[in-house]
Amino acid sequence: MRPVLLSHVHDPATTPIFPGDPPFTIATAATIDADGYYLRSISSGEHTGTHWGAPAHFDPAGLRADELAADDLFLPAVRLDVRAAATDDPDYQVTAADLVAFEAAHGPIPAEAAVLLWTGWSDRWGTSAYPNLDDQGRIHQPGFALAAVEWLIETGRLGRRGALGTDTFGPDPGLDAGYAVSRALYRHHRISLENLTNLGSLPPAGAWVLVGGTRNRAGSGSPATVYGLLPPV
Question: Model-level pTM greater than 0.90?
Fold first, then answer.
């Protein structure tokens, strides 16, 4: 397999912060001239930039970052291209019918897969068009419809170790302040992959994702380098 990067560069100057999350700062803590080595101090929330969320992020009884197994972070991937629909409607919600149409074109979604939405939102990274706030401070971003996620869960496509992923702030439609999709996802020992990029490098099916990050004790998730692993040519 060939690796490709699915993570943005984390940079306080360009990384959009989800409204209400902690600030993201980087400061130089040591220099080669003064200390003999170069070191920086980084402060951010666990869900800043490209990151993954553990079940405990929304489920009090869910697994935390340090309780996940290695195979929770290494998953077969399918990539749904919804860029056209998201361009026409920034609040677009992917439906169960969209998923059925995907399977008709590309074959069944593997069990315990990472189902990744390619909305085109990563092209907006570093601009106000990424959070896409209206004059009331509401986020307008595409996401999964709750019924679509329930279909993935009920039919076993996500299994216990699957994931929802997207190149937006998260799998929920931006206007859903109740995070119904995330709550449904995390109730069943699954993770989310958020603020992804370079999803166009993945085929619709046949790739894998490998998720890095830190295993903080009792963590709700972690900023991460996420790799797409492409099938042999």
Answer: yes
Residues facing 4 on adjacent strands: 228
Contacting residues for 60 by C-beta, under 8 A, at least 6 apart: none
Q: At a CB cut-off of 8 Å and minimum separation 6, what does 226 contact?
A: 5, 6, 7, 50, 52, 193, 196, 209, 210, 211, 212
User: Which tokens in the block code for residue 98?
Assistant: 């969209």
Domains along the chain with CATH numbers: 2-7+46-230 (3.50.30.50)
Give Dmax (Cα) for the chain.
Answer: 62
Q: Shortest CA distance to 197 belongs to which of 132, 93, 120, 88? A: 120
pLDDT tens-digit readout, 100-123: 999 999 999 999 999 999 999 999
φ/ψ of 217, rounded to 5, equals -60, 125
Helix locations, the chain, DSSP H: 32-35, 83-88, 96-106, 146-154, 180-186
